[in-house]
Amino acid sequence: MMLDPQFQILIQDLTSSQMLDVSDRVTAATWRYTEQGCGDLSITIPCTMPEAYWFKTLPFVYVKVFNRCSKRIWWGRAAGDDVTITRTADGAVSIQILALGLVKALEDIPHTGWWSSTRYGDWQDVPSDLIPSRTPERFSFETERRLRIAPSGGNGFTTSSIGMLSIAQPAAASVQWQTIEATYSLKAPAGWRASLSRYDGTTFLSSLWTLDGIGTGATGITTQSGTLSFLSGVGCSRLGFNLFCTRAATNLHTATITAGTRMVTPGTMAGIAANAKLAIGGAEPEEVVVTATTATTFTAVFRNAHLGSDLVEPLWDGNDGDIELVITNVRVKAVTTPTVTLDQVAKYALSEVLAVNPWAVFNSDGKVQSPLVDIANLAADDQPWATILSEQVQLGDTSNRPWVWGVDEDGVLFVRPRQSGRVWYVSTEQCSYTQGGNSDGRWTSGYGVYEDEQGQRQRTPIQTDAQALANSGLVRRTALPVDGGTLAVATQRTSVFLSDAAKGEAAASLTCAVLETVDGMVYPATEARPGDMLLFRDVLPTSSAVANRLNGFVLAEVQVDGFNLAAVQLVPEEPLPLLEMVMANSHSLI
Questions:
Q1: DSSP β-bridge partners for residue 485
Q2: Tens digit of pLDDT for each residue in 58-110?
Q3: pTM to 2 decimal places
Q4: Cα separations in angstroms, 200 against 163, 203, 520
């Protein structure tokens, strides 16, 4: 047997320069299309042993299939490691080459970058060994249901004692923070300040926002609140909210003193008043109470001797909550657009892959569509792009349609609705069936289980797919774990899941040679692709509720045997109806 003459199979180097035309040599050739484009291809070639080992030493090469119109219909890659050498007892030698579609290129490059975060738990307190003057031991923090920074009573506070919560891109991330939005509430007296700062790693760049406290005493403090929205000019790898006292640190300044009642002349009297508590540093730190002051001096009882260089800090001795910075509704993004969508992520993936392997896929994003669903939380740490896209495509779109991504036979990256191809027609008498499957994967109702921005386990309202319930007649409810972080994302993903699950598990296949268009034009079944709709011309639906199950199927996979075009296998994304049901409806037309 020979490969059908309408096909040509070429092996080319990565510049698409032809190395071999193996069309006349192959003794077996099958290839497959999946929802991610070109799947796998297997060819068997009789050869000599030296030829076999030549193939075995090949670097990555392209394997392409063309049709009689010189149109490329399959494109993948293979290397020597994908070659299997077989020698039979009679001395015959052959090789089998297993090539994989170019979608594998998205598995070659891991990505690290946080694209969007609404989770408080992504923020962390910062120690002084990371950023100077940060003193987390003098503050209390919350990062569960809100962001909160509050000074702890009994500690000295100056501009060198800063409490900070920050969110940082991972080391070597390829994206930066570009926007931040939040709601704030500052309860602090004069002499305290809140700020939002941007950093390159641990290097300070600038402050985006500052706010000074207002008032004095425990009852005279004014609580200030508002919103922050920085949609440009952020550009940094770390963002941090800070709370600190604006009094500068000073020292005793006076020459060495001994224990007892002593008058000292500090570098500054700012924040020092009668009855104020001061933290005195040095080899033997202690707390003292100011008993008297002048314009330049204060008097206190010292238990220990001190050097003139020992630090003097005003003590804050209030209660927890007297001073605090609270941040809620916070979102940071690595894009300047109002939302983060799958098409943005996919286009960036394409640019990163091409920057490393310019030959990996075709440089075009023209087939990348936008599902318009906002991805509230996306944090990638050393994940292959294929994994990232496969996870995020599960969100579907704003119409709750399932979406797919992949690389087609033109080598072009695509992101699109699952059902977005052509419509084909076939008669039940023109094809054969393989039927099986079960109902375990067919859910009619469900709810999403997710962790919200505060880290609390939450559940979405119960959803029911009306079409699925009409088809099934039974409520089968599932709890769907969702890595989303928001109610909107969890609800969206649950809705898409139910729409998909209503179809059950793909457990059937259909084999035929030709397909027709709506106007009767005949095409070989090899023209079908995943995402195409296949309809039976001779089936009469019994009701609208079962119409799509009886006479309409979206293809999930197409399998081609280059030596037997009468048996192109078409696999639907949902089980085919029982043949008896199809034929019964078909006969009702007679």
A1: none
A2: 999 999 999 988 999 999 999 999 999 999 999 999 999 999 999 999 999 99
A3: 0.80
A4: 19, 5, 64
